[in-house]
């Protein structure tokens, strides 16, 4: 029942979510990302939201790199900061996307990139896009409502489309078996 033509579509990257507040890079948990100083040296002063990413199928390796408290320069040379949102900026997502392109182009940092966003005309086109992403080893797609204002947290303006269902859970107990 969703009119997909109203959304911008991008690949859902399996990376480490990171926020740039204009001075510091940190994980969604609020803990700092201990990136080398050169990694963020050319970043803009505007807050950014994105994923630290290497490539498809490399989450474990990426996680091992970005979660170290003492960064290893050679490892960080593989990491890119793939940006998809301009937090708390005015305007709808389409306006923010245009502004993001300008900000990232002006920064001129090769590992600071905007996640490719495109529009699709219908469900058949969306399915083709999903199938292509999955064939290449991708996890799925993200659909961002073009006219949506910035809203933090999970909301109906940002949809996740994957070829399988999954859910997040919290383990509350472990009861040993008898075998």
What's the topology here?
Layout: E1 7-11, E2 16-20, E3 25-27, H1 37-40, E4 48-53, H2 59-66, H3 73-76, E5 80-85, H4 93-107, E6 112-114, E7 118-119, H5 123-135, E8 141-145, E9 158-161
Parallel strand pairs: 5-6
Antiparallel strand pairs: 1-7, 1-8, 2-3, 2-4, 4-5, 8-9
Q: What is the distance, rounded to the nearest whole angstrom, between the alpha carbons of the first and last residues? A: 48 Å
**Counted beta strands:** 9
Structural class: alpha+beta
Strand order of the largest sheet: 3-2-4-5-6
Morphology call:
globular
Average pLDDT rating: 93
Percentage of residues assigned to helices: 10-25%
Tally the helices. Answer: 5
Radius of gyration: 18 Å
Mind explaining what this structure looks like?
- The chain is of the alpha+beta class and 179 residues long.
- It is 25% helix and 22% strand.
- The chain has helices at residues 37-40, 59-66, 73-76, 93-107, 123-135, and strands at 7-11, 16-20, 25-27, 48-53, 80-85, 112-114, 118-119, 141-145, 158-161.
- The strands form two sheets. It has a five-stranded mixed β-sheet, covered by helices on one side.
- Strand 2 (16-20) and strand 3 (25-27) form a beta hairpin.
- The radius of gyration is 18 Å and the shape is globular.
- The model has no long low-confidence stretch (mean pLDDT 93).
């Amino acid at each position: 029942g969703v009119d997909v033509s109203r959304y911008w579509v991008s690949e859902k990257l399996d990376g480490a979510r990171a926020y740039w507040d204009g001075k510091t890079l940190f994980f969604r948990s609020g803990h700092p990302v201990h990136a080398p100083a050169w990694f963020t040296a050319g970043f803009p002063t505007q807050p950014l939201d994105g994923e630290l990413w290497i490539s498809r199928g490399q989450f474990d390796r990426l996680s091992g790199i970005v979660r170290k408290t003492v960064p290893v320069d050679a490892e960080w040379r593989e990491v890119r900061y793939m940006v998809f949102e301009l937090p708390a900026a005015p305007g709808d997502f389409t306006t923010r996307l245009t502004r993001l392109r300008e900000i990232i182009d002006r920064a001129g940092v090769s590992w600071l990139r905007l996640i490719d966003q495109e529009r699709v005309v219908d469900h058949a086109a969306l399915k083709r896009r999903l199938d292509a992403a999955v064939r290449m080893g991708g996890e799925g797609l993200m659909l961002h409502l073009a006219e949506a204002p910035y809203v933090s947290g999970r909301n109906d303006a940002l949809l996740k489309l994957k070829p399988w269902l999954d859910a997040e859970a919290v383990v509350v107990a472990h009861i040993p078996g008898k075998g």
